[in-house]
Specification:
Layout (H helix, E strand, L loop, with lengths): L1 E6 L5 H12 L2 E4 H10 L3 H12 L5 H11 L9 E4 L5 H13 L6 E5 L3 H10 E4 L7 E3 L18 E2 L6 H15 L2 H7 L3 E4 L4 H13 L1
Parallel strand pairs: 1-3, 1-4, 2-3, 4-8
Antiparallel strand pairs: 5-6, 5-7
Bound molecules: adenosine-5'-diphosphate.
Adenosine-5'-diphosphate (ADP) binds next to α2 and α3.
């Protein structure tokens, strides 16, 4: 499958993307994960992106497009991909359209995860993420806790709160989302690709995505 997952921070894009990769071997491409790994490794990209990310702002479109142009042409994308956190702005969506036409690929669908704001806020403040860059398993202290010592159940690394998960940064991320990313729903509606799913259960969302792309 070749799909884009749209939705506010905390809507469940990462969790749903991971579940979908288990289904047909499509790769999950998360620009947030790519950027966080670059920040940790202190690469040139990471140093450029870090400030924007910690403030909860978007990193410049040009940086993201350079990453994605290379990433989408790597061999593992031949089986399909699930874009999680990209595109995030109208210019990114327009550039993606040009890029996909250039490499001869069509999207199957754009899935919009529609989750109420109070649920989003609660999820973001209770989220913990495995600090091991190769794992990045997602936990929630209420519904899916790590070990009692706060360790990842898969790899044993500490499960931590991200630097952009303070109340200030979360508020900023939600404002940025409403202003810059929410307009993408109308963009993809016009392209005839949009499917909005308003479920709070990841299993239910995955079932609906599968049903919509195998039709
Ligand atoms: P979330 O969806 O939970 O906000 P992500 O992990 O997708 O978090 O992204 C974290 C941060 O990385 C964003 O707040 C932003 O600074 C940056 N980022 C990720 N993807 C993009 C993108 N496509 N365009 C611009 N900035 C991005």
């Amino acid at each position: 499958m070749r799909i884009v997952l749209l939705g506010a921070p905390g809507a469940g894009k990462g969790t749903v993307a991971k579940m979908l990769t288990d289904f047909d071997g499509s790769v999950q491409i998360s620009t947030g994960d790519i950027l966080r790994n670059a920040v940790k490794a202190k690469t040139k990209l990471g140093l450029e992106a870090q400030g924007y990310m910690e403030r909860g702002e978007l990193v410049p479109d040009k940086l993201i497009m350079d990453i994605m142009e290379a990433r989408l042409q790597e061999p593992d994308c031949a089986k399909g991909f699930i874009l999680d956190g990209f595109p995030r702005t109208i210019p990114q969506a327009e550039d993606l359209k040009v890029l996909l036409a250039k490499i001869g690929i069509k999207l199957d669908a754009v899935i919009n995860l529609d989750v109420p704001k109070d649920v989003i806020l609660d999820r973001l403040t209770t989220r913990r993420t495995c600090s091991n860059p190769d794992c990045q398993e997602i936990y929630n202290i209420k519904s899916k806790p790590p070990s009692p010592e706060g360790k990842c159940l898969k790899c044993g690394s500490p499960a931590v709160q991200r630097a952009d998960e303070t109340v200030e940064a979360i508020t900023q991320r939600l404002e940025t989302y409403n202003e810059k990313t929410a307009p993408l729903a109308a963009f993809y509606e016009k392209e005839g690709l949009l499917k909005t799913i308003a479920s709070l259960s990841s299993e239910e969302i995955v079932a609906q995505v599968k049903a919509s792309i195998t039709k």
